[in-house]
Structure formats: C-alpha cells, structure tokens
Backbone:
C-alpha cells in the first residue's frame, strides 16, 4: 500500500484503495469514510510513510498512533487577545484544519520565506 501527499490537496491523503485505484480523503480521524477518486497527476505526488495515515480509517496505515516525525513535540505558547484567537480559529476552520495545525503550518511557512533585506 502506498500513501502520498499532494501540494494541490493540502490536509488530505492520497492512497490506494483495495483495488489499487487512487483515492483522496481528509487527513483526520475517520477521514477514510469521506474518500473520493483521485483524478490528478501522479507525478506531483510525494510518497510518504503509510503509517502517517493511521487513525484515518485507511487500511494501509495499520493500527495505533501515527509515528512521530523528527524530534518529540513540545508545547509553544503564544499570548493573544480574544479577538486574535477568534480570527485564527475562523481561518483554521476555513482551511479545514485544527487551530494548532493551522498555526504550525503558518509559522513554518513564514520561516521558510526568504527574509527581506532591511535598508541601513
């Protein structure tokens, strides 16, 4: 069983069903129940460890918790106003992500952007 990620389908897994056809589904607990046929190109897919889809209901991921990636996770707190938190939660919901996942994705994207050079 092969599992893939696609930049065109953030927050979703792409993988094989029992007949070998590619389908995609939400990368969330029980997401396999919402699978639909994948009609995109296979070249843009990035193959990943099938265990990452554990908990989504996909039979190719096995059972148990997904493996940890990199170093163990740690908590990082941010002070924010109630309005900021409400806005962030709304935006995360628009992208069908949990607020913590959305925040981590946004922070990682900000760090990956090239820094603009400040003028002296």
Residues:
């Amino acid at each position: 069983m092969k599992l893939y990620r696609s930049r065109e389908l953030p927050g979703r897994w792409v993988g094989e069903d029992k007949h070998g056809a590619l389908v995609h589904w939400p990368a969330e607990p029980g997401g396999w129940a919402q699978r639909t046929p994948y009609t995109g190109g296979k070249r843009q897919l990035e193959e990943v460890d099938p265990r990452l889809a554990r908990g989504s209901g996909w039979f190719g991921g096995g059972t148990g918790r997904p493996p940890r990636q990199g170093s163990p996770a740690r908590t990082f707190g941010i002070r924010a106003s109630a309005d900021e938190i409400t806005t962030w939660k709304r935006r995360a919901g628009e992208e069908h992500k949990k607020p913590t996942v959305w925040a981590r994705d946004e922070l990682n994207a900000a760090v990956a952007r090239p820094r603009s050079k400040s003028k002296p």
About this structure: The CA atoms of residues 3 and 49 lie 7 Å apart. The longest helix spans residues 99-112. Residues 3-61 form one domain. The chain has two domains: 3-61, 82-112.
